[in-house]
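LOG
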Amino acid sequence: MKHPLQYFPVTMYAIVMGLTGLTLVFHRFFEMQVLPEFLYQANLWFVSALFLLISVTYLRKAYRYPLEVLADFHHRIRINFFSAFSISFLLLAAAWMPQFPEVSRVLWWIGVGVHTYLMLHTISFWIQHNFEIHTMNPAWFIPVVGNILVPVAGVEFMPAGFNMFYFSVGFFFWFVLFTIFLNRVIFHHQLPQKFMPTLFILIAPPAVGFIAYVRITGHFDTFAQFMLTLTYFFLALLVFLRKNFYKLTFYLSWWAFTFPLTAATLASVMAWHQTQTEFYRVMAFILMLVSVLVIALVTWRTIVKFRDGEICVNEDK
């Protein structure tokens, strides 16, 4: 009988991304004197412990089933999710910044180093292999567009030029990959049900791009407005596509709903701080409530599936 550890998925790091995004949201609303600091601190310690647990478990898998990990690392779809590991470091670095800046610095440097390797490895993998268009989905954004996260905490540790390098690479590949993705969904077969939640990843690049750009430049200018407007456009588009999500069977890919929503919330909070425009404040509150409800739902469904033994199974069947 196969041991569940053999099928422990690297996509587990999407849970860390979603919950860390929520932790950052709680901190911003604590600063706005809306929520108690306890919510931020409790979530920070919980998600850090969860990240450690997932990492130790995946290391156990690598030790006991190295061929399974190698197969994931060369899988045409799952290879893109390995960058969720390094992105988790970058997000945790931002989350730890208010409490322990030195811990944040260590986490950020580890995240930058690992993410740089994974980004270059993944792009090399794309170039050296032939892909069918149907393998393309928004998860492809994770390895390269994840670069945009580097400046969020990175402005505290490195000069603007260093952070602009990662921002530029991520921004460039966002446009390239979005063009390919649009071609795929319009002119080819629709996304499989399992990957429908990844449509929410479309929200993350402009939302995080807005935050990173304002962090680097310190200005809310026309380009910042451009990215924030695109964030709201993709939110509106997904509202119009809502019927596609009503009857989805649960997969871990549901966690793709979470981090993009928290990123849009954080972008709205930053826009309100920069402009004091009431619209952004209202959007921040609405998106915060939606994020909490969605994360609560996805967490509950994940716990139920774990209890029923439906998570660590062979996904290729």
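LOG (cont.) second protein
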Amino acid sequence: MPDFKLPDLGEGVAEAEIDRWHVAEGDTISEDQALVDVITDKASAEIPSPYAGVVSRIHYGTGDIAPVGAVLISIDAAPDQDVDVPPSASAEGPQPGGENARDVGEVKATPSVRQLARSLGVQLHGLAGSGPGGRILRADVEAEGSSPSPPAPHAAERREPLRGVRRSVATRMSEAHRRVPPVTHVEECDVTELANIRKPFNERSSGAPKLTYLPFIVEAAAAALEQYPALNASLDEVASEIVFHDRCDIGIAVDTPDGLVVPVIRNAGLKSVLELATDIERLASGARAGNLQLTELQGSTFTVTSPGAFGGLMATPIVLYPQAAILGVHKATDRPVVRNGHIVIRKMMNLSVTFDHRILDGMAAAKFILKVIEKLEHPEPPPG
């Protein structure tokens, strides 16, 4: 029986981190039984076994990085009478990472929930899940993790491995910092009228998604990218060519318990504000739950990062290489401004665009952000 190799997990994914083994050496496994959870720079994934047999060797331990095509596990043919043994009847030897394979196999939980449990020190085996079919949800783990526990001895410092999404973010940010000569341009935007549109719509629309500033900003950015395509480009360093993309797929940075994740809104320029709001709500919820598909995290041509109320006065976001630019959205606050010679209070927000100076110059970035501001300061009310 052939060795089982790490399969191709999607476009641009060259390697994966071993997050959790569901089996141990010596286990008898069945076809389609969960073998291992892996983490890529895009998402988490559970990989099933393509055939039944006996695990003879596990080639990578928890926390190891395996390239696509590398042998993950060797599986020998099992005696006929043992092939259909269920996962719960597997041997009770320890698996890589120190957890009992039989215990892990009985737990119904997604990789992100397992990761949360490890960070909180919660044992999933024996924990009652409130989800469908007894599946353990994040709320179950958080409730268990908040239970009183004996005080831990004082330690001078705490250390944790740089793994999973955090390691992926570290790698991508280091690459961007090394490759991209960044410049940041900042402007302030009056979002008073936009705030006046959002509030009554949200009050009267019970079934529609809540309108935050973000869908309006994504709509404005998509319109401005059409007029200034250099910001919707990337640099092919091997060919020494600037690639101008014929699609507008905007990534939105989402803060999750595991780190920053950037799901993608496809064809953002063709969607209404309400459609964008629906996409943003779905993608952000999926990112925080850790259940997005790899295709929902790949191929963005431009990025918007909006920390909302935590956006601060101004920041210089890092361009996600090989993209040309990223738009930073900062906190909207009441400020005194001058209008027609008088000091008035308006809802103001700073916007910043950081760009790759190899691909475009400051004038293009300035014109782009002014176009975004023009659309935000003269918003069209959504229907309904």
